[in-house]
């Protein structure tokens, strides 16, 4: 009648003893404690955790190490900052918020004024319309967002105002073109859906192979109306080299200045960006 509870208690005691003995292995294993744990396991009629579940202990150690490493890489945020950000406000940042806003506006300006849109329309056979301009602009805005997301809370704050500047610019351009309020509202709604759908597609493409990225460009940039594989190849190469180049830019400089220079669409040696520029030293090592 009392055999099962006693056996369960013996198993629990043996398991706890064995785990304590195993955890002491990294600090100098106590052999006597190990032998006592093994004897208790044999008396209880169970297998010792020191022998059979070693893989479980190893996996648990790996998970613990991963968690510890993840905590070291995360940005430390105080309780007050977490509270006000949970309420929808932005906590204190490393740099002044107004400087980050200005840098965000300047970065968006680089996406608009430093791009040769006529070349994109010609090489990709796109019509010269507001929608085609927006499709090319959102591609470059997305590349900036991907880069700035790597800069922690400050980068996410900057991304918010890059997107805000883009929508303000799109609305002003539609007003200048004489689009009435009703059609402008409908167009803005369609562009918003297109933008967020493109972000998901481009994110998947940049993390996958060239086929997935080409499919995302075909759906979003070419609006499913591209039959020339050379155009897709050109744009995949452009996005890859552009992302590699932006990743080499200093994050603090981007947060404070927002200055981005774009590589040309067509280059004689497009693979040159893949070659890491190594510093040259003289005989003295300087």
UniProtKB/TrEMBL annotation:
The lineage of its organism: Eukaryota, Metazoa, Chordata, Craniata, Vertebrata. One of its GO terms (cellular component) is mitochondrion. Residues 123-258 form the Ubiquinol-cytochrome c chaperone domain. This is Ubiquinol-cytochrome-c reductase complex assembly factor 1. One of its GO terms (biological process) is mitochondrial respiratory chain complex III assembly. It comes from the Eukaryota. Belongs to the CBP3 family.
């Amino acid at each position: 009648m009392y055999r099962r509870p006693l056996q369960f208690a013996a198993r629990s005691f043996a398991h706890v003893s064995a785990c304590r003995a195993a955890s002491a292995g990294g600090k100098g294993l106590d052999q006597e404690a190990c032998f006592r744990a093994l004897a208790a396991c044999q008396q209880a009629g169970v297998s010792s955790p020191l022998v059979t579940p070693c893989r479980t202990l190893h996996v648990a150690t790996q998970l613990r190490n991963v968690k510890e490493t993840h905590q070291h890489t995360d940005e430390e945020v105080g309780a007050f900052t977490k509270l006000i950000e949970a309420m929808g406000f932005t906590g204190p940042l490393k740099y002044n918020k107004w400087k980050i806003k200005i840098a965000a506006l300047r970065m968006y300006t680089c996406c608009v004024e430093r791009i040769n849109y006529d070349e994109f329309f010609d090489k990709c056979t796109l019509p010269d319309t507001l929608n085609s301009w927006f499709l090319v602009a959102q591609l470059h805005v997305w590349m900036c967002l991907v880069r700035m997301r790597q800069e922690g809370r400050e980068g996410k704050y900057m991304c918010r105002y890059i997107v805000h500047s883009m929508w303000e610019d799109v609305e002003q351009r539609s007003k200048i073109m004489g689009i009435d309020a009703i059609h402008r509202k409908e167009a803005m709604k369609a562009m918003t859906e297109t933008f967020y759908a493109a972000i998901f597609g481009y994110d998947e493409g940049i993390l996958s192979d060239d086929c997935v990225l080409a499919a995302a460009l075909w759906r979003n940039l070419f609006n499913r109306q591209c039959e020339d594989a050379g155009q897709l190849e050109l744009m995949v190469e452009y996005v890859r080299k552009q992302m590699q180049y932006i990743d080499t830019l200093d994050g603090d400089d981007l947060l404070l200045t927002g200055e981005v220079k774009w590589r040309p669409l067509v280059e004689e040696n497009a693979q040159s960006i893949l070659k890491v520029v190594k510093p040259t030293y003289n005989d003295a090592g300087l």
